[in-house]
Amino acid sequence: MATEFTVVLDDKPGSLADLAEALAQNAVNIMAIHAAPCPQEGHVQFITNNADATMNALRDAGLDYAVQNVLVVPLPNEPGTLARVSRALGASGVNINALYITMERQVVLDVDDLHKAQDIVMGMGFHNAPD
User: Fold this and answer.
1) Domains and CATH numbers, the chain
2) Under DSSP, is residue 99 helix (H, G, I), strand (E, B) or coil?
3) Model confidence over 36-59: pLDDT tens digits?
């Protein structure tokens, strides 16, 4: 499992740069990131190499944030792998809320039942990447 941060930014030029600079100034490396526009704002979800330093950086920058645990799973880059995993999760009643890729080509899964999803993926032979 990994700690995912969600930050809401103003939808204007330079907002993402401000976030990235705040993290960089605190020696925080972004391991995975996903951003989506909403009216007048942008939602950015990301995981980093250091959750504590990330919280300090966001507080110092005056940015509100939310945290949650997510799965980070190294899936092989082969046809059908995501289909098998998502089908197994769905068949077990686990909903995938969000999915994106890390810089190391691992899949980040935000799911509604984290422990059940972890058991399913590990039972399939895919092991959760270390935090």
Assistant:
1) 2-66 (3.30.2130.10), 70-123 (3.30.70.260)
2) strand
3) 877 788 889 999 999 999 999 999
